[in-house]
Amino acid sequence: MFTPYRLSLFSEESVPLFGPSLPCPPVFHNHQEFREFVLVKLINGEKAAFNTPIFAQKRERTLDMLIKDLYNEHMSESRTPWEPQCFYPDFPHDIVCGDSWGNNKLVLGTESGIFLIEEGLTHRMIFDKTVVVKQVSVVEAHGILLFRTDRGRDSRVHVFRLSDFEGDSAANSLVRTRADLRDHKLERTKGCHLYALSRPGGSHLRMAAAVGRRLLVLQWRHSAAWTTWCAASDTDTVDGFQLVRELLVPEAPALLTLVDSPDNHICVGYRHQFDLVSEKTGDATRLHTVDAAKAHLVAALDIYEDDEAELLLCYNHTTHFQKLNDENTTEFDFQWNAVPDNIVCVFPYIMAFTYESIEIRLIINGNLVHNMIMPKLKLITSKSDIFFVSTAPEFFQVRKERIKEDRMERDSSVSPPSSPHSTGSTGSNDGAKPLRVYRISFSCLTGNSPCERRVPTPSLPSPQPLLATPSFGSSYLSPDFQEGSRLRPDVRPSRSATASPVPQMPLLLPGCRSVSPRRPGLHKDHTHSASSDSGLGKSVSSSPPPSPHNHA
Predict the structure, then answer these.
(1) Is the dihedral of CA 466, 471, 475, 480 positive or negative?
(2) Contact, 102 vs 165, CB < 8 A?
(3) Minimal CA–CA distance to 437: which of 7, 205, 118, 40?
(4) How far apart are CA 187 and CA 241, in angstroms?
(5) DSSP assignment letter at 457
(6) Which SMART domains has this protein been placed in (predicted)?
(7) 299: left (phi over 0), alpha (psi -120 to 50) or beta
(8) pLDDT in tens, the chain (552 residues)
(9) Alpha-carbon distances, residue 245 vs 194, 284, 377, 381 (angstroms)
(10) Measured distance CA(451)–CA(327) in Å, rounded
(11) What gap in Å lies between CA 343 and CA 363, rounded to an integer?
(12) Is there a contact between 76 and 396 (Cβ–Cβ < 8 Å)?
């Protein structure tokens, strides 16, 4: 004779209903049936508990991390150090200017206003379309945001605190308008058409603002060290900048670059020449004259070797190395395939950005390394990492095949895990391709922090490089390729490209891709059901791991 069993079940309200349903009355006379019923009920109850919001979010995060780790480990063997990562998949406005904020945020200026985008989140407007800017700078060391409005003679430089845009409070989420600029404008910069800041890492923040033929040299009243120790006390905006002196130059500058040296200088680019102006005396020295009927000045980059500054003067198709010390003048030029819009120097590479390509060369001898075609390309910033925007589709390599994905709905069988903000398209109106923000990490290229870039000067001019993209892979830094370089014993880093501190692939930071032997690809052999009801015929092996909160 069998003892009857009565079953009662209790569960939290957040747990979904799960079967099998209890008989009425819930009394079992056969212990085998009772055993099977309890086992199935508990299995389904455990799976239902995992579908509650708390457990579901934890499970989703865990699986997301596991899948990304697997993808990074098995699917990225042949990634080149300059291959970009998609930072933001769909931005709906054409970008005019921008700057990076920390490691995962960008401040972007558009014709529709100023936006803040953060990796993993939806973009947020911080200034509406009444505020049109042409330059944006984020100075994390002092906690300030600077931008230059474009209103002709009424254009000015404005200063805001970064803390005004942090957090989720109502005040920080407020969309500001032109009326909010009234108390944040530097009156001295009225009519400013260009400004430049000193490079990060200096003791004091300096700014040179061009107002017609006048150069205003301003300095932030507090040092970076003081701001670090007394961050709560540093709440200045426009009052933080103090006028150091005013300089007069022959014509309105087209380019400005602040050069850090014991006697600070400003490199000023005009229509057909580059001058070096002393901040203390205002004396100008002719650096280089552009012999061209239609000169197009691109950039003047300050680089340093053994704390000695020199300049890369870029105009038309040419990049010219210019020593500031006349005793050590280096005549070394190389030509680009196309006229660049922007130049970025990240040792051992120098990169030229055009409207449709990124041309990468070795700074040692100007040899062409790679030419990357990306449509509607525009550089955003290269302060900490290289950020640029393009309509190029996201891509990655699988077994020597480049898989391109130009749809907003990704193919989950080959694509990496999607970002939380990549579920919808807001910028592909009327069938237009979305603007994607890409990122190339400095650490993947050099392994050095951005503020410690030291670029050796070329030792010898190399022969003019061919104007065709070479067909080579990982041998782009091989001795056979660097025939124009020279080896010499020196305690300093060698100026030869073959011995230069190129990226050490096994030592790349997490998220950087290295060149390694081919590994087998991922296989979709194991699939877990998301159902909360297993049924008698389903295998227990496909259920989630045991829950620490089992129902009795």
Answers:
(1) negative
(2) no
(3) 118
(4) 11
(5) P
(6) CNH
(7) beta
(8) 568 888 888 888 878 888 888 888 888 888 888 889 999 989 998 888 887 888 878 888 888 889 888 877 776 556 688 889 899 988 999 999 999 999 899 999 999 999 999 988 899 999 999 999 999 999 998 999 999 998 777 889 999 999 989 877 666 778 999 999 999 999 999 999 999 999 887 778 999 999 999 999 999 988 877 777 777 777 888 888 999 999 999 999 999 999 987 788 999 999 889 999 999 888 999 998 988 778 899 999 988 777 777 899 999 999 998 887 765 555 678 899 999 999 999 988 999 999 999 999 998 888 999 999 999 999 999 998 999 999 988 653 323 333 334 433 444 444 444 444 443 333 444 456 789 999 999 888 875 544 434 444 444 444 444 344 444 444 444 333 333 333 333 333 333 333 333 333 433 444 444 433 333 333 333 333 333 343 333 333 334 444 444 443
(9) 17, 15, 38, 29
(10) 27
(11) 12
(12) yes
For residue 114, count other CB atoms closer than 10 A to its CB: 25
Helix, strand, coil shares, percent, the chain, to 5: 15, 30, 50
**Contact status, residue 47 vs residue 544, Cβ threshold 8 Å:** yes
**Prediction pTM value:** 0.64
Residue holding tokens 């957040």?
14
Q: What is the DSSP letter of 78?
A: B
